[in-house]
Amino acid sequence: MSDDFESIDAAPDDLERAFQAVTTRPDFSTVVPRPINVSPVQAFHNTKAAVRKLDSKLEQSGQKPSEADRERAAELLLLAQAVVFAHLRVQAPQPPRVVNQKLSRARELRSILLPAARACANAGLLEDAEVAAIEKGRGPVDVAMDLVALAALYRKTWELLENATPATPAMLDEAAGLGSELIAILNVSPEKDRDANDTRDRIWALLNDRYEELWLRAAQLWGSRVATEFPKLSTFRRRRASSAPA
Fold it and tell me: By CB count within 10 A, which of 180, 221, 225, 228 is most buried?
């Protein structure tokens, strides 16, 4: 599987909160694990695209999402975030040299983005308090968290900052992705379930089941064209469209 964690547009805290919300459910241990067979990052993007596409189709049809539609969408996005975080936790431990190389690059990015953010704050383009909070960081974990915070800060007011700083969209993407990756490597709480792969695969099973429900809902709207019109999460066995949920 090929993973591009830099493309994930969710904060690390959101990913971890999603993971905790799913794995602490009373019935989580009863879920039958399903080996993951696709990049969790790709599944994350596919899920977001599918939810958007269904909403758009409903709007075009003059329909409003039902309560079941809204609950299903929220659950899918939660599971998609949770499986990304779970996958990060089961990545093979990286040699110290590799981690140090990542930290070195992270410090380099921070040394570019943070002083530029301070200059922008002094010029009134950014909130001083937000930049000051990032400036307090000192250790490796702080460096990683600072990159994520800086990327979010720049993106929030990019139209104002685009021609006022040395930052580029590519640099912000790298900062967000590298920061998220380092947080997962350096600051992961011990997992209650001893088998991290099993935990990830349980979340993956839940995501597949919920995604299948979404696909069946899409079949009500697209009919026989659903197979070509609607995004796929991965290869899985579908039930008959006639049993689609409302």
Answer: 180
Q: Enumerate residues 6+ apart whose C-beta is below 8 A from 208.
A: 34, 233, 234, 236
In angstroms, what CA-CA distances link 1 with 41, 56, 92, 207, 222? 10, 30, 14, 18, 30
The token pair that represents 67 in the structure block: 């309560």
At 85, the pLDDT band (50, 70, 90 cuts) reads confident
- The residues, ordered by sequence, that sit 6+ positions from 141 with a Cβ below 8 Å of its Cβ are 182, 183, 186, 187
129: which residues sit within 8 A by CB, 6+ positions away? Answer: none
Q: What is the pLDDT of residue 164?
A: 85
Gap between the Cα atoms of 141 and 161, Å rounded: 26
pLDDT tens-digit series, residues 6-50: 566 677 778 888 999 999 999 999 999 998 878 888 889 899 999
pLDDT confidence tier of residue 93, bands split at 50, 70 and 90: low
- 175 vs 52, 148, 244, CA distance in Å? 26, 6, 42
